[in-house]
Amino acid sequence: MTVVKQLTELIRRTTSSLPGDVVSALKKSYRKESPSSSARVVLSTILENCALAERESTPLCQDTGTLTFYVDESLRRKVTQKALYKAVAAATELGYLRRNSIDSVTGRSNDDNCAPGSVVIYYKKTKGVTLVMKGGGSENMSRQYSLPDQTLGAGRDLQGVRKCLLDAVQRIQGFGCAPGILGVCVGGDRATGFEVAKEQLLRPLDEPKRGDAALRKLEAQLLKEANSLGIGPMGLGGKTTLLGVKIAARTRVPASFFVTVAYMCWACRRRSMTVK
């Protein structure tokens, strides 16, 4: 199988089926909700939709999102931009992706989805190729804070970070298709903050934070607090507002303290492959 065909298959599988850890989290949340509640109905519909999409190899969400590829740097000459664009064009023609790319100046559609911004490529130390598909609704809910924030009473410490993240959850409410996942970067500059925050969405939901005990504790605390707010699936009330919170930290300059939130909806479409 050629590299392009392998990448096209990666796109098909990513757009039509959720990772096992996300499905497990949704099922666990379903069991927690009260019988006959709106929350349970929503989660039941989501799980039925996921099963149908996987069975029929169709997109599990109408918004097939921005495609972000993380490619091991050793594969730079094999998994090229040209190969990735060919795979995206093929996947679009086959119906695995909708026409989802708009020229920001002219307003015209890039019908093959192949344009800078529609396909994002990072070459770095990783394993094989990983694809993340992030829809526009969840991307619209991402945000960045600068500490101290007098409005929130948030200082330059982890309690200040906590206040920012709880504010983000409150502002998101049912928008961006809850229940969702928070990918967070504490520190860094404005640009790398969003890159690192989005990378946290690659972490399995059932994998605890390694190394930093303070951030591991904050992840667990935020998940518990967010799910006690009663916002629930699609903002209709319930015990499940977030499926996970994943936090990383980066050094910063003395003048800046950013807290960056990359929000992902329940359709956390990510998948990896080994290139043969």
Give a structural overview.
The protein has 276 residues and is of the alpha/beta class. It contains eight helices and eight strands. It has helices spanning 3-16, 20-32, 38-56, 81-93, 136-140, 158-172, 190-199, 213-226; strands at residues 66-72, 119-124, 129-134, 143-146, 180-187, 242-250, 258-264, 269-273. It has a four-stranded mixed β-sheet with strand order 2-1-3-8. Strands 4-7-5-6 form a four-stranded mixed β-sheet. Helix 4 links the parallel strand 1 (66-72) and strand 2. Helix 2 (20-32) packs antiparallel against helix 3. The radius of gyration is 19 Å and the shape is globular. The model has no long low-confidence stretch (mean pLDDT 96).
Class by SSE composition: alpha/beta
Beta-strand residue fraction: 15-25%
Shape: globular
Q: Would you tell me the overall average pLDDT?
A: 96
Describe the strand arrangement of the main beta sheet, using strand numbers. Answer: 2-1-3-8
Radius of gyration: 19 Å
SSE arrangement:
Elements: H1 3-16, H2 20-32, H3 38-56, E1 66-72, H4 81-93, E2 119-124, E3 129-134, H5 136-140, E4 143-146, H6 158-172, E5 180-187, H7 190-199, H8 213-226, E6 242-250, E7 258-264, E8 269-273
Parallel strand pairs: 1-2, 5-6
Antiparallel strand pairs: 1-3, 3-8, 4-7, 5-7
Helix pairs in contact: 1-4, 2-3, 6-8
